[in-house]
Amino acid sequence: MENMRPEPPRRHWLRKLHRQRHIQVMALLGIAWIILFNYVPMYGIIIAFKDYRIIRTIAEAPWVGFEHFKAFFEDDNFVNVMKNTLGISLIKLIIGFPLPIIFALFLNEIRSLRYKKAIQTISYLPHFLSWVVLGGILTTWLADVGIINNILLALNLIKEPISYLAEPDYFWGIIITSDIWKELGWSAIIYLAAISSVSPDLYEAATIDGAGRFQKMWYVTLPSIKGTISILFILAVSGVLNSNFDQILVLRNALNESASNVIDIYVYQTGMLSGRFSYSTAVGLFKSVIALILLLIANSVTKKLNNTSLF
Amino acid sequence: MLSLNRKTKGEALFDLLNNIGMLLICFVTLYPIWYVVVNSLNEGVDGMRGGIYWWPRIFSFENYMGVFRNSGIMTAMGVTVAKTLLGTVLHVFFTAMVAYAFSRRELIGGKIYIFIGTVTLFFGGGLIPTYLLMKDLHLLDNFLVYIIPVMFSFFDLIIFMTFFREIPDGLEEAAEIDGANDWSIFVRIIIPVSMPVIATISLFHGVYQWNDYFTGVIYMNNMDLQPIQTYLYRVVAQSSSNQMVAQIPGGIGKTVTSQSLKLATMVVTTMPIVFVYPFLQRYFVKGMMIGSIKG
Questions:
Q1: What is the nearest CA distance from B51 to chain A, expressed in angstroms?
Q2: How far B173 CA lies from chain A's nearest CA (Å)?
Q3: Are B22 and A119 in contact (CB under 8 A)?
Q4: What interface predicted TM-score (ipTM) does this complex get?
Q5: pTM reported for the whole predicted model
Q6: Closest CA relative to residue A286, chosen from A80, A61, A78
Q7: What is the rounded radius of gyration, in angstroms, for the C-alpha atoms of chain B?
Q8: CA-CA distance, B56 to A149, in Å (whole number)?
Q9: How many other CB atoms are found less than 10 A from the CB of residue A204?
Q10: Closest residue of chain A to B150, computed from CA coordinates
Q11: What is the pLDDT of residues B83-136, one digit of tens each?
């Protein structure tokens, strides 16, 4: 080293900054993008508290406080929208969350490696289909002359064809079933990865103790992937309110509206289609607040239960 | 007698039931897709009678010819190919570049930068404020709306960053001694050794680009710039299928119905992804795992 004396701190800092000017440029390009495309819309949220019209700027719009929120709570759609949003999300969480874990546990018990691989490859496939294509498949299947009606008619279970997508009663079932169909295999990947890192010693020990296949699953595999399950549960809870938008937008229609109108759809309709920008933003913000509360609850519950948490 | 290699009766029954269950899941997964393919290969008018489950009753390529002669579909397909290729290359390059900078431990301000990004994982502006931004940026009815607003993702950055931090520092130091600056280290050293994670993110973003229809629905009024998924959305959800048939030039269409044309379009739209994904499969399982470590 040519210079053993410590440099004055300020010059040292500047010299370091100069040396890393290239990576600073790379980092700041990213920060600039984040500020423009993530933070500017966050600033835009203030129109929820203003009376914004497209003809004036956000700054010019007069403040109205919580008026738009009040209007939403008093709106005739409020109860229905909340019921659909929370209902679909909750059922999806209760049924849709554990199924991939069960699938992964049983797939792990398949002995032939090639066979296991083949099943996995098939099970991911629907994840790569778009909701639009899937919507097309579903409308074909559920049509009056579709395969579902044909089978039920042939089995004499129904007297005349049912227009499933025109009946609100069937809508939640269609949404939840098709979502599971699409994502089951994909969601299982992470559990399979976690299972594959469980030490074989534990299984050997359990075998010596006389444990059967189910017992090994229950007492060895499941506890070993508890951490992964917790993290994914927190993420599932926090994301649950906004995970169905693309799907519902494709499948909803005027006839099933009483079952398909969730917050995101309502935001889209009032904002994009009716041009009530401030109101729609307020509704969207209300949803974000609920999502945040759910995230915090899930985080603290899993922390209490088994000491894993996102933060 | 219990031997280690022989299965007990219970074990054998378990394996049998498990195998049956798995085969059932495979059938339930594949059959709906097969049903669409078979019906798309059947003559359209005949297909309206229904009852085609396993094989086409009257085999016909007419529906597919209808797809390839429909100017609206072909334009939309071109838009999709363009946005998927360009969008994916830019997303991967830009996100990887920022991730590389963020992954350098000596980066001044690095902690603040990462905090600024982490916030975006939990908070966003929502539909309307984002729409207003796109409007102010003149991205409405502009092809770039498919590319620039999704050029970066902090979630993908985390996956890249986790990977980059595993790369031995010696590799970069050696390049530095040879006189390379940070840009050329990134392009010539980091990118080539990061192919597994690049393939993963490319697949994820490529699938996103290929399948996204909503961007087209809200930001695009110019029908010549709508992607195929938006086109299909308008057909599937808004039943404007007759317009589809109308866009096929004469000489065909006697046997093609709007329904059969829709099925063939769905198959054509999905084909590229189905062909690509088995090749990238070994990468994305690894990528998913890298992404999950972050938790």
A1: 7
A2: 14
A3: yes
A4: 0.89
A5: 0.89
A6: A78
A7: 25
A8: 20
A9: 10
A10: A37
A11: 999 999 999 999 999 999 999 988 999 999 999 999 998 888 899 999 999 999
